[in-house]
Amino acid sequence: MKIDGTHYRSLWWDADARVLKIIDQRWLPHDFRVADVRTMQDFADAIYQMRVRGAPLIGATAAYGMARAMDEDPGDANMDAAWTFLEKTRPTAINLRWALDRCRAALRPLAPAERAAAALRLAHEIADEDVEINRRIGAHGLEIIREIASRKPAGEPVRLLTHCNAGWIATVDWGTATSPMYQAHDAGIPLHVWVDETRPRNQGALTAWELGSHGVAHSYITDNAGGHLMQHGMVDMVITGTDRTTRRGDVCNKIGTYLKALAAHDNGVPFYVALPSPTIDWTVSDGVAEIPIEERDGAEISHIQGRLEGGGIGTVCVTPEGTGTGNPAFDVTPSRLVTGLITERGVCAATEDGLAGLFPDLARAAG
């Protein structure tokens, strides 16, 4: 996607400097900063501190981290150490482990002298694959939006609601939940997107920044406004991303997604999830019981970053001194509340049969 007319991916490899470049998302939407990721500690910090965020982008970043590790020491022991070091940074998003497993499986049979170059090629491949997966998700989601638009009065926008940021900066490009929005907008379909703020880190502001940059009409709303909008017929479709989806279609996404699904179910609003296949965890059946939920630093709740009146970027405390916090980063939406899963291979029911029907090869490989 473009920023001020210039195309960017969320990360890219600087071949001359032999360093990974990232958009440091901690400063968005108020400041656009590009950072270098050089050392293994830099890679771990980038993932844990949410300089990069979103399951697909975390996976791609981890792949480049494995390439860095192989450049430093291509031995088996260092490969395993790098896998462990990076895997523990964010426990919920399955793409992280998926990318690390894929890298280790591809590199293990190679001679150590071949591993550094092979690891870098594989990281490039994973990044490019993500772009194409998200483009195809958008193409399938576009057809759902087109069908909704066909039933509305001429000129009336399709009103979408999204939670968190499943946009191009949460992936390598296009985004998951936003890809259908961009493609519908580019196809001339009138849209209006309700963008949840998504406390505590307000990732909805990133979605608003993205949509505004692309010219998509949108409004930034509080997390608790969605149910009200649905009750009054002001939402035609909810679409979110996912950080991990079970083989039977339970969806783990940013905290608050479950409440949106409940409100959508109660009001007859379709609730779709944009699902890249690397986000399917075929080893897990019951998302509520089996998916580990990351508990993050309470300062994310007690403090908030924004632009100050003087124009600078600062952080302020919003809670009384001494107040405790709880900060689960994700929740699980049971499959019964999901209308459909929009994948790169098409749209399916949020069921084990639905996923296996689109991905028989992956289902078989998982046993």
From TrEMBL:
What broad class of enzyme is this? isomerase
Enzyme Commission number(s) from the entry: 5.3.1.23
Q: Which domain of life is it from?
A: Bacteria
Where does this protein hold substrate?
53-55, 90, 203, 253-254
Q: Where is this site: Transition state stabilizer?
A: 164
Its recorded reaction(s) are: 5-(methylsulfanyl)-alpha-D-ribose 1-phosphate = 5-(methylsulfanyl)-D-ribulose 1-phosphate
Pathway(s) where this gene product acts:
Amino-acid biosynthesis; L-methionine biosynthesis via salvage pathway; L-methionine from S-methyl-5-thio-alpha-D-ribose 1-phosphate: step 1/6
Job of this protein: Catalyzes the interconversion of methylthioribose-1-phosphate (MTR-1-P) into methylthioribulose-1-phosphate (MTRu-1-P).
**What is the name listed in the Swiss-Prot or TrEMBL entry for this protein?**
Methylthioribose-1-phosphate isomerase
Q: Which organism is it from?
A: Palleronia salina
